[in-house]
Design a protein that fits this description.
The chain has 480 residues and is an alpha+beta fold. It has twelve helices and 18 strands. The termini are far apart. The relative contact order is 0.09.
């Protein structure tokens, strides 16, 4: 699915400009602010049939080429999945999702909408998963086919009504009743998506720590979406952490350990959950070792790039490089399949315990890199940084504090962070008393620093007034 393979005659009569105007209005399009052109449209498959009052779903892949690439550089091309709900008559209930129309010689005017907003169109997806129950897969009609797979033993209510989630940034998800949820990947990369392959392994192992996978849909070797268990009553881990901090700040006379919203017990349980997930992943995916010098070299390289994007890192460069150099002395490092982008927002608390979700890995990394085995300490570091962010976020929600009040809150926020980090880390290690070994501490500090460097670049580009959050963490790394 290279760029040259995707330049085709349009598969609908929607012009490139209409598709372009639609993309920039969506939440999930990642190229906002960059100049681009639609350079190809291809139909991957169809669902349903075009008839009065009934939708035909055209699943399209749209190729974009960006125009801000330096002369002589390789073209910057991205592929996006765009399912259209096509009707022979205007569907005013879908006016908010209208994309465009064209005149067809056989059917007259065809009205196209974003299929994810249309319950009738999404019912076709659910029915296709139901048809996959027998042989394990179901192939749709058409020259370019969609293949639906079901995990053995999974049950799907094909009569459930779909409801689109709002607020998502990079993908689109539709909940079907209280039974299942379909996540469609918007930005596509040829090859297996780790969100599917990781969930499949954990589901087959009957892990209680994830929402079980029911099935997936693909075109060739490219994963397009996944159907999984819907955890309707679950609560987002990030929201729970913020609530805990707010409760702490509400009573300035109470220590973190005495607060009615103390989160430390949950942090410990979350550490247990991550340890169990890592154990299952070691049993079902490739494991190995890599030279510590290679890991250190990658960290140095990312720092090189970050220094150009975030000059505020410059005063910390020497100590960061010293820390990364210490990693070189660790010999060989064990690697395995990991989450790759773990933070509190990737966790859900249910009545039965914690669940870890969204195993796609770090979005900015190429798919081939996200599929490689990595150090489990990357996930641990990501969670530690998430604990550090929570008090800062709550602090920024209150702008009416004087300097003394602000300093007092920062001290209490630091106490909250360190308490939850300690409970999480000791539980992950499986020892409530002992901390990491010297080598583990060096590696963990390096991964925490590497994550904070990434955060510094992100905040510099998106929220400059927040850049002090990761910079403060970098300044403190190695103190404990």
């Amino acid at each position: 699915m290279s760029g040259s393979e995707h330049v085709h005659e349009p598969v609908t009569h929607l012009t490139d400009e209409v598709i372009k105007a639609y993309l920039v209005k969506t939440r999930w399009f990642g190229g906002k602010g960059r100049p681009f052109e639609v350079t190809g449209v291809r139909r991957l498959g169809r669902l349903g049939r075009l008839a009065p009052g009934e939708p035909l779903v055209d699943v399209l892949i749209v190729e974009l080429t960006y125009g801000d690439v330096a002369a002589g550089s390789e073209a910057d091309i991205e592929l996006y999945q765009v399912p259209l709900a096509c009707y022979t008559e205007s569907e005013h209930r879908l006016d908010h999702a209208f994309i465009g129309w064209w005149e067809d010689p056989e059917h007259g005017w065809i009205h196209a909408y974003d299929a994810l907003h249309d319950r009738s169109s999404m019912a076709l997806w659910l029915q296709a998963f139901g048809a996959a129950a027998g042989a394990g897969s179901f192939v749709t009609d058409g020259a370019e086919s969609l293949t639906f797979h079901r995990v053995p033993g999974s049950e799907v209510d094909t009569d459930a009504v779909g409801t689109l989630f709002t607020g998502e940034q990079s993908n689109s998800s539709v909940a079907f009743g209280e039974d299942s949820v379909l996540k469609l990947f918007r930005k596509l990369t040829p090859g297996p998506n780790p969100d599917i392959t990781t969930h499949e392994a954990l589901t087959r192992a009957d892990s209680p720590d994830v929402a079980h996978l029911y099935g997936w849909v693909e075109h060739g070797s490219t994963h397009l979406g996944m159907l999984q268990q819907f955890l309707r009553t679950a609560t987002d881990g990030w929201d729970l952490a913020l609530s805990s901090v707010r409760t702490l700040y509400a009573d300035p006379l109470v220590a973190a350990r005495e607060s009615g919203g103390d989160f430390a017990g949950e942090s410990g349980r979350l550490g247990d959950t991550l340890r169990e997930v890592h154990t299952v992943l070691r049993d079902h995916f490739e494991v190995g070792v890599v030279p510590a010098a290679d890991t250190a070299a990658v960290m140095h390289q990312r720092l090189d790039q970050a220094l150009h994007a975030a000059p505020a890192l410059a005063p910390h460069e020497e100590r960061l490089r010293h820390l990364f150099d210490r990693v070189r002395a660790l010999g060989e490092l064990p690697v395995q399949r990991v989450h790759g982008d773990l933070h509190l927002g990737q966790t859900l608390r249910t009545a039965l315990g914690w669940k870890i979700v969204d195993f796609e890995g770090e979005p900015a990394k190429p798919l081939a890199e996200r599929l490689l085995p990595d150090s489990a300490w990357r996930d641990v570091a990501g969670m530690l940084r998430s604990f550090a962010y929570a008090p800062h976020v709550v602090e920024r929600q209150h702008t009416d504090l004087d300097e003394d009040e602000l300093e007092e809150r920062r001290q209490r926020g630091t106490e909250w962070t360190e308490r939850n980090q300690r409970y999480f880390l000791h539980a992950y290690l499986g020892n409530p008393e002992a901390g990491p070994t010297s080598g583990q501490r060096t590696l963990l500090d390096a991964y925490v620093a590497d994550k904070a460097v990434y955060e510094t670049v992100y905040e510099t580009r998106n929220r400059p007034t927040w850049v002090e959050i990761p910079l403060t963490a970098i300044a403190r790394i190695g103190e404990s």
